[in-house]
């Protein structure tokens, strides 16, 4: 197996690689100073010396003065202990409930807000939780604090934000906190600050401060809690009385040893491991310049004037966080979509609190490095970023006048683009470069524009299948954006985009003659399909012979919302008609073939496409209509009853059909791990190995073979065409799907097996586990 290219880790706000000296110190603690610090023999005394010398060094690094420093498992435990201690003290004072307020920054780590909720409930304080607003830079609103601080039982802030790197001014905060309420307990999250800005806690009136070793090159599972002299303390772990009763449990000596090694670097005046703030800022400048070059539309979400130089938060228009993370992973660059404590890429509550636009929050990427970053790694990372940008340009994902047409990867056949549950379709005839866009979504307009523009395609039409209720069509906008690529005789259209000057007609299998337009050797025919809405139409794509488009020749059917996977489109709008839908469904039966792939406007289950046979097997009402077992009046009664199940607030959108939770019994088929795949390759088992990632990810990954087997790239956006090819070929050659993590490959496997293609599996964990 070929080795993947060197990993460039730029997610150090999540965790850091353990420094070699810290790892060696931990190993020695396990092999030599392995005693229990509570033991009175010499081995125990050596262990205790290691512990106390680490504590003393930490006191120097943090400027802790006479405060208590308690070793624990990390920042989250420190947060729990600090908040419990403060709230327990507040409960003892028994203040009136109407005056109990818990203040915390709206951009705090979730560990803080969740701990406040938890202990407020456990202690039955019934205090009001108030989030301190921030401005567009992420700086706390001091006026808000002044207004509420007198009734606060605790105030929780942070020095450096984990998502944006924004620095809070501790001196200013101290004034607005202490002048009106000198006794309020103040907790500060210092996790992202240590090693990046100077900390001297004894010069402040901070009561509690928490630190975590794995954020600064030490082991995971070790941290520190600073407790100012005189501040109340309630332990959350009781037992043998270790840490002077502040935190029981046998101490983590290897973790402490790793901390000590890092702290020794920090106090060493001749240190060459950690770079100066000026050097770190120059690294950031280089990253910023490279990001601007690689992604010309990039927007930076944090203000560098008030942020540590080691955190860059940015968004690229038209790309979600998930898409950008997939891109960077393919280039072996590790970044984050926000806090690493969230298991999925989703919008950033930190950026939302800062009042940034929704698309920035949904597209946010955090690039973070540490003080031990080297210029060599920065240079390699920047080269990779440029490669990632080039891959997007070559795949027409971003537009650039610098890309030669010969370098652009082909756009051919059918492409499915999705935004949430809604689908847009682009079909391009490779030879003629003629294309058509169906049901364009506003969020995808610029992406479609780039694809047409960079390939210099001939845009024959931009079509809607009906007047959409759940979103505004961007058809007119897209036609205007791409007017130079639309032939002049096709620019005048009807309300759904069909060119009105098209007069020629083609015969369908039921004998009806309908208008069509040419797409190279294929034709796209238009048929009326009222029901879901009064103006609903369908488009049938296939090869016409002798001015006839037979059902067996229809390769793709774009039915809009008339027929969706697992359900029928709703027919309870003011412009709907169940009677007309009944007739439209019967017409579908006569016009579609056994292998016609149905391409809907919505895909609520990630099934991508379907066929009439599959839908009849899973939709009793549809089957009865097409088999003549249900007349129009019966259909109307049953369909009206069916539509009453629709819940429009699902995912905060108007549903275009009944949403049913996916059946847990959906056949995933055989799932294999990478060891099994290796065994199959070693035994020369016959199968097609398919990388289901997007072309730009495949190109960046540098692994076009596994063993002696070629890896075929068929991205999810082209899965519809792959399904059509497989169904028409009639064969069932074994296929193994792979992707970055196993998520997309599983979706592809389920979709194909649902359509009756059983010799399909996928690799769990994907390339991530190679």
Q: Can you walk through the features of this model?
A:
With 770 residues, the chain is α/β, with parallel strands linked by helices. It has four domains: 228 residues, Aspartate Aminotransferase, domain 2, CATH 3.40.640; 120 residues, Alpha-Beta Complex (Aspartate Aminotransferase, domain 1); 246 residues, Metallo-beta-lactamase, Chain A (4-Layer Sandwich); 99 residues, Rhodanese-like domain (Oxidized Rhodanese, domain 1, 3-Layer(aba) Sandwich), CATH 3.40.250.10. Helix content is 32%, strand content 18%. The protein contains 22 helices and 31 strands. The strands form seven sheets. The chain has a seven-stranded mixed sheet with strand order 2-8-7-6-5-3-4, with helices on both faces. Strands 21-17-18-19-20-22-25 form a seven-stranded mixed sheet, covered by helices on one side. Strand 17 and strand 18 form a beta hairpin. Helix 5 packs parallel to helix 6. The chain is elongated and about 95 Å long. It starts with 7 loop residues before the first strand and ends in a 7-residue tail after the last strand. About 2% of the residues have low confidence.
Concise overview:
It is built from 22 helices and 31 strands.
Within the CATH hierarchy, at the fold level, what is the topology of the largest domain?
Metallo-beta-lactamase, Chain A
Which word captures the global form? elongated
Q: State the share of residues found in helices, binned by percent.
A: 25-40%
Biggest β-sheet strands, sense, barrel = 7 strands, mixed
CATH superfamily of the largest domain: Ribonuclease Z/Hydroxyacylglutathione hydrolase-like
Total domain modules: 4
Total number of β-strand segments?
Answer: 31
Task: Specify the number of helices.
Answer: 22
Residue stretches low in confidence (pLDDT < 50, at least 5 long) are 339-345, 403-408
The separation of the N and C termini measures: 9 Å
| Architecture per CATH nomenclature, i.e. the level-2 architecture of the largest domain | 4-Layer Sandwich
Kindly provide the radius of gyration, computed on alpha-carbon positions and rounded to a whole number of angstroms: 31 Å
Strand order of the largest sheet: 2-8-7-6-5-3-4
